[in-house]
Structure formats: C-alpha cells, structure tokens
Amino acid sequence: MHEMSIALSIIEAVEEKAREEGAGKISGVDLVIGKLAGIEPESLKFCFSAAAKGTLAEDAVFMVEEPEGTGECGDCGMRFPVTFYYAECPGCRSLRVKIVSGEEFLIQSITIEE
Amino acid sequence: MCDTCGCSSDGGAVLRKPGESDYHVHVSEGAHGHPHTHSGEELHAVDHHHEMHHDHGDGSHHHDGAVRKVVLEQDVLQKNNLLAERNRGYFEAKNIFVLNFLSSPGSGKTSLLEKIIPLMQQRFPVAVIEGDQQTTNDADRIHALGVEVIQINTGSGCHLDALMVNRAIRELDLQDNSLLCIENVGNLVCPALFDLGEALKVVIISVTEGDDKPLKYPTIFHEADICILNKIDLLPYVEFDAAKCRENALRVNHHLEWFEVSVKSGEGLAEWQEWLEKRLVRH
What we know:
The complex is a heterodimer.
Chain A: H1 2-20, E1 25-33, H2 41-51, E2 61-65, E3 69-73, E4 79-82, E5 97-101, E6 105-113
Parallel strand pairs in A: 1-2
Antiparallel strand pairs in A: 1-6, 3-4, 3-5
Helix pairs in contact in A: 1-2
Chain B: E1 14-17, E2 20-26, H1 27-32, H2 40-56, E3 67-75, H3 78-93, E4 97-103, H4 109-121, E5 126-132, H5 137-143, E6 148-153, H6 162-171, E7 179-183, E8 200-206, H7 213-216, H8 218-223, E9 226-230, H9 242-252, E10 257-260, H10 269-282
Parallel strand pairs in B: 4-7, 4-8, 5-6, 5-7, 8-9, 9-10
Antiparallel strand pairs in B: 1-2, 1-6
C-alpha cells in the first residue's frame, strides 16, 4: 500500500505550493498518472480522503489523467501502444521494446482560492 | 507515542542497532531539519502562473475569492528522487558501491548476504542497511558476521525511501571504496518505485514461489538490474521451470542480468561473486 505514503506526499507538495501562492483553499488537484506508472489511481483517490483531512486540500477534487503506454522497438524503431512492460513489437516481433511514455507520475496543476 | 523514548512521534521509521537496546533514531526528526529547497521546476511553475495570469488580460480575476489554476508539473516522487540523488552523490564521492536488494519475504535475501559478505569482506569493506517493519533480527544476523550494520524499522511502512537511507548512512561508519548492501522491506510491489540512491537494484526470487512471478509483479523486474533465482537445490521437489522463469523475467526487462544460486548448497554463488567483484573493481 505505497499509495497512502504517496497520497501524503502529494498533499504536502500541493499545500506547500498553495501557501506560497497565498491561497486559503485548494479546490482541485490535477494529476497525470501513466498507465505504466505502477500506481493504482483508484486506491490513490481512496487514500486522499484520509490524507487531506484537516489540510487546505480537504475539499479538493482530484482529477487524474491517465496517458496510455507507448513502446519503441529497439530493432526496427517502430512506435506502438503498449499495455505492459512485456510488449512485443507488432512490426518485427522483437522483445527489445523501450517504454517511451506511460510512466509519467506528475502533479500537473492545482486550482486554488484566495 | 514512541514506546522506547516516550516522544510524541507516532508511526514513522526508526533506526536501531544490534546489541544497543537504548539506541534509536526517528527518521522523521531528521526530516524537519532539512532546509526547504527551491528547485528550478518550482520557479518554472511560478512563471507559468504569471503567463496564465496575463493571458486573461482584463484583470477581472484580481478580486478576493478568485479561483485560479497554478501549474506545477512536478514529479510526485520528486522529493524522494532529489534525496536519492544526494545519497548517490555521497556514495560516488566515497566510491561506495551500493546494491538495493528487493524480494518478497522469505526468498533468502538475508541468507544470501550472510553467505556472500564473508567472501566479499576479504577484498572490500562491507556495510549493511536492513529494512523491516519490526525487529532487529536481520541486523543481528549480519552483526554476527562482524559487519557494520543498521536496522531501519519502517513501522507500518511497506518500503524504504531515500530519507530513511539518508538518515541511516549518517549513523554508519562507511569506508571509502566499500560495498553497501541495502536489504529492502520484503515486498515485491512498493519498493520498486522508490530510488534510494543505489547503483543497482537486485531482485531475488526463489523456486518455491512460481515461475510466473516476473509477469505477475512486472514493475519490480522492470526496475531491477540483476535477478537472482535462489533455492535451486529444491528444483527436483517443486513445480518450477527455471528456464521459463528466466524467459518471463527477460520479457519484462531484457537488460536483466540473470543468476541461479542455492544459498544453502553454495551452487552458483561463485559466478555471482565473480560478477560482483568485477563490478566493484570497475566501479
């Protein structure tokens, strides 16, 4: 359950930012969690309700964008969608596939109120 | 409340040393002492905010109670990753080769260390950081080898993070040109995400676990540099296809170095030791 410690670190980061900006409240947090990031968005969202209690983000709505994974073949260079690490190149059947996107895990932005 | 010192620290990781029952350090206490750093990314975020601000042009959103969006574009694990890089810088400066051992509980991480450390010690100083939720049992076993060791008890935590390691290395007397082994909390999921500043991640599986482990828990195999299959002396007694397991692991990560050993019988350990020594010299 690393989602709880991650939820706490997200709350800490957005609160720090909101205070810097002089905000009294965080009403929204936009996250980018790639499909291959190793994070379950649903269990993360579940953890937020507990992690955000008593913070500026207590009433915040958490929105998650989940970019799909993209692989690049190390042999033929083809780019194609992947759903997991053990992808096979649809062009040349090579297993030398490098993940080029889908591993993102970012706090994209926050919506704050004065 | 901490039941050892009675301080108000609730939960959180604690450092302990074998044979020193009074010694314990709360990891979070160190955290409060860190100055807040302002990275370029944060400044970048502020710039974004101003750009957005001016885009609106008419200034109508200046009144109190205004709702606005602030772009952060900040990596969620940034804090951990920055601290991991600091650890890495320290290790590089002292030429310490650091391995992060990952596996599910019971696959033989501590036993492997018990076997390999006496062999490595003949040529390099070795130190160990042990991670477990509770007890100093593993650190006690390593301590018995006469090796510098510290135990991190994570409490409810399921993984080690860069801050715990940062605190632990301050408590250790690490020598230049040495080997540091970090034994992570037994868990095949969470430790994969947290960089500690190590040079290499070593994942260990045993033949009593199932040859589809790399496919069921791909993240950790994807992140690892080395995979060690342990307990191969039990292969005649279990339904485990070592070749298939290797193939599965390499499907997830084709850069993976693969070793097959039995810590109990000693089979395969010489190859792993030879590889490790080569890396240490080259390091």
